[in-house]
């Protein structure tokens, strides 16, 4: 402002004004607006904050007097003060997660909620220091600014010893036109007096971009600016108002201004080519969440390398597994090797070691000598062969597996494809193709069940390479000559087999295991588990992979064990079958999952003749799942009385890459006592270990998975970045260095190096070992006694913001919310999708067929509350799909990656969806920045430039306030009410009905005006409130609420409508009332006498602290019968009018600030859309406490002048036909209701339409019946309502649904008949609250 010759008052502007200035500067720099338009809009934004100089006393300017801040500025500055962050109550801990979730849900309403905040634009985020005043140096020249060349001296600035440093920045950041003015010359061509002081040389080049007011303060600049040779000028208003060109020819100042703008425009860069519109710059767009300084951090010392016990020395280990097989096959041919059971639980076949050896030899001979192609062997040593066997045929799989090993072929076990489009089938085909598989082994029964082509051959599956199929039943194989023996009998470096693994993204890779690793792994398991010859092992797991293969097919042969394989089909029919087989075979070991233990608990009643006393090891293969501890504990509690000893339960952890990582040893094998830890989930989400000793809910109880395998070294490294060792109290990825791990991903050298050749280093960068480590994909830590603890898997890790969450934890929480009533067989999938470069949690569950939509939605809401309470994270989407529609994994579980893919492609077809992006998407874009990739904004701009038409929906245009004198006159609702009380005093505005249908209260314009005046007088005299104080209105639905609302507006207070507590349920409803009063900072509570007694009653004292209530006034007795001396008129349309508090479906309380401008725009748009005039009558059956219900109940009648027939929804419990009878009696053309009211009428009046017809109820007068949607469209309910009351004359096209959100409660409304098709979206652009979120659909 130095160029204006006047000091500028150092008053901080609101953040919204600074953001608008910043956007305006960017628009000017990008050529979106002209210089004149920029200056006009800028002057309009700053009009209220810059003292007007035109017509001012020059002496005041000479003395440099700074006027005091206006009342408006002071009020705005007061309400912009930052508010303290919200806090949460302490969590309460329970031993089991189910109890924790239920307790969390019960206490969910006691949480502290965020302070009510004005909804800010999704495209604006201020990074401005609130103490930085704005740049106001370039205002419109058409304002007649008072400028004198004699004032452009050093006197004004030098007279201020405390000149604000930002003033220097204002001079530096002046726009082009004002910069030219500040360096003007006198009419005679003599340069004007230059500025003295620190701003004497602070200039900006004419052609530089306008300043960015959103940046921080600039340092003082003393650079010299060269004088312009082409154009020099003086300020307007001087005696010599001319400009001189370089040749000294005087020209008009206005023409020179246009030339100056033209020069600035020509200096701007040209429009980029079309293709560049589709590509954003590499600037970071999204908000980067900064770490909380108070978040828990690891504090322990750096961990040391954990070394497992050495392999037993002196034990005569065999040279290879095949040598052991030959030994048992020839010396113990009748020893049982494997017993297969059918679906009824009967032993259908027992494979002896002699039969296994002979059949494997026969298969090996056939593969090497009898399969030819063009007179050449089809297979040669090292080739890969697919093994396709069902889970019910372990015998033939074992023969095929060892037959391939004997033939020096590499078996690749895969699942049996059931259809041509199985879930994950294409990824399995990619694995087979990359492995070069050309032959698949199977059985005759399995081949007959495979899908066939028209030629009768096995069909080609999607993504699979061409395969030849070989049936290996006895009649199809050739007996080898007596002198034929396989070549390899020792453990060598070649690949023994390939085990498939499905990654988090759905891709399938193959983990190669060499013969040496295979033998070392079997030896380590033998030593860790204490296996001995002729022991019996009951195996419930899949024998083709993981622990089922390692124990049941490989290690069992090393020790000549007898394996009883229980198929999955039998477990579905009889979950106790494995326990019965343990009892009947006197098994010494059993291999199960926690799922099998849980199923056994559900089916164990009545089975009293079983005994588990023979077990010395019950290996829980999914011990890496931290939630397996509940099944272990419950199983022990039930079966301990039947011979099961506590030390028998041995959890273990493993992965396809590292094979077995750790396993718990029984005490007789030297294992330490088992341990468990109760960890804080909040700490785990930050990657640290905090043992939670307090009674809290958000805890995770984990058990150890034992000690590392013999001969293995174990360490824990950081999940992200370089593999640095973690601290002792830090969660990281477990790494193993051993000769008994996988060696590579087949054919994938890149990721093989990062997974199988990791070199952990210390904090100083020193490698911890000279041997490479293998990443296991398990997240955990090393606990006491060198025990390994696992808290999750890397594949289930979801990083939301800067916190980590595990999918298994979210599933456990969802299953704890009464799943049996709503979820089909507990089938829940949790995964994450990327939205705005961050993980968002998606939960998909199968809905029971008998679950109603309303019950399921209630369950969904409770799940969201539980997840938010336990894990403190929001769920992006919760979807329920029909039963048996999610893609299945081979053993019946949910195929997670395929489910995620269907979700992304929109192929899930859910029957219920609950989207909650507002609770989890917190890194919204910054203002006017570019995305690092092609985003939606780039596509829109590119399509527009290319001339493509983009679909859109828009409502009718509303006249702007500046363009309409009438709109400016009645911008504020209090002014409208006063005008109506003066012009139409006896016009009825409100009519309240009771349950009997009689009118209990009315209000004309003058009656409402007088009652509002009395309320305002009471607030000012008795409550001693001042302008801007918040007042809570706790009223039942009625006219008293409306009068109290306008009474607050009359005295300048901010009303907050609050639903009154229910007298019969104070313990639940009163804390919500108290919470809103406290969060809104209400200085007074207005209510009725009955509610006031209720708020101070003894029952209320048991729920809340009644001593902390603010002043409570009864509007029936405490109101004086006199009016206020003057009615408050807001100094600005942006002043706060009221607070709109609402509770979301997740139980989160949030407040929205509504300004007077937004309130009037909302009423104006509803008036035009619904054609509301003083001669109209509308019927309203809504709760008047938030959203559109409040607007229709309290605002629209005063603004539009129509009569509102008010029907409290609570009265319908006594008379369900009250609303429809009122609509018929008053012949309302427009009526509003809620889904609950419509459902109540549909259920309660379904059989009474005839009775209503006889009573004269006729709904043919209804033109529009709008349902205010609280959460989601309920199409079935609206259709049922329309069909049911069609007999009463209700038009079929009358019923429609409004759509809105918190910050825009009426995005679309059903307008007049014929305006558009029902349900067409309409956007009322001006009814949004100030700085609200701009929604684009």
UniProtKB/TrEMBL annotation:
Gene3D superfamilies: 3.30.300.30, N-terminal domain of ligase-like. InterPro entries: AMP-bd_C_sf (IPR045851), AMP-dep_synth/lig_dom (IPR000873), ANL_N_sf (IPR042099), Dip2-like_dom (IPR037337), DMAP1-bd (IPR010506). Residues 60-214 are annotated as: Disordered. Residues 9-127 form the DMAP1-binding domain. Residues 151-164 have a biased composition (Polar residues). Residues 124-139, 174-185 have a biased composition (Low complexity). Belongs to the DIP2 family. This is Disco-interacting protein 2 homolog A isoform X8. It comes from Mustela putorius furo.
